[in-house]
Write a structure and sequence with these properties.
By secondary structure, this protein is α+β, with helices and mostly antiparallel strands. The chain has two helices and eleven strands; from the N terminus they run βββββαββββββα. The strands form three sheets. Strands 1, 2, 3, 4 and 5 form a five-stranded antiparallel beta sheet that branches. Strands 8-9-10-11 form a four-stranded antiparallel beta sheet. It is globular, with a radius of gyration of 16 Å. The mean pLDDT is 91.
């Protein structure tokens, strides 16, 4: 017997560290509303994350999935360099603005740790304090996440 749940089981990546500055992200599909969500939470203790008190939630649209998949699959796109020149790079930045505030999702090749992406989600609520969660994602984890996002893309289209 299968359980009829509102949400699918989340795909999560946890990155705790000894300094307690790690983070976690999870992606989840809401079957009833046909919506796909990204949630990010900072590490608050050795193996605990702030899912209740410090979670950042972003509803991902089709265009967001397209850009994330493109980047996770290692494809280059036009980027602005630090000196404001247009260059090709493996990165994307997504900006969401609502009446509740702003959220930014950033995904790029991690120059600091070869073989990884740097993935961050930041939030600046209207009248509130900004917060950010950032983690390194291995190329292997990126492959799994790409499959999850491609599956979500199909589900959002009703396939």
């Amino acid at each position: 017997m299968t359980e009829d749940r509102k949400f699918t089981k989340p795909y999560a990546i946890y990155k705790p560290n000894r300094k307690k500055t790690g983070g976690a992200v999870q992606f989840q599909y809401n079957k009833q509303k046909n919506l796909f969500f990204l949630e990010a939470a900072p590490q608050i203790d050795e193996k605990m994350f702030g899912w209740k008190e410090k979670k950042i939630t972003v509803k991902l649209e089709m265009v967001d999935l397209e850009k994330l998949i493109h980047t996770l699959d290692g494809k280059k796109s036009k980027q602005k360099s630090k000196d404001n020149k247009v260059v090709l790079g493996v990165a994307c930045s997504l900006y969401h603005q609502t009446d509740k505030g702003n959220k930014i999702i950033d995904l790029r090749i991690n120059d600091q740790y070869p073989g990884t992406f740097y993935f961050s989600v930041s939030s600046k609520p209207t009248g509130g304090s900004p917060q950010k969660v950032g983690i390194a994602i291995t190329f292997e984890e990126a492959s799994g996440l790409s499959i999850v996002l491609k599956t979500a893309f199909g589900k959002l289209l009703g396939w």
